Amino acid sequence: MTTLEIVAGFWIAGSLLAMWKIWKPSYKVISLIDTDNILVQRPILSTIVVFIIFTLFLPFMVLPLLIPQKAEEFALGFIKGAKRIK
Question: Are 54 and 23 in contact (CB under 8 A)?
């Protein structure tokens, strides 16, 4: 197993963890607040897009993943931003 495979494995695992800890709760709140939101209307597409974004910006997602208060702040900001999307 090469170093690149190990790094890629951790990177994908980190992205999946971010999806589980941040995207899933945020999506549930968004779906309760605004059923007409594009993220709720197209759940598969929005999940793929968010996964790609979380994968690209994983180094910046470390603090929200490690510190629960930061995760909550990030999720609240994400929800506020998603409410503006129509």
Answer: yes
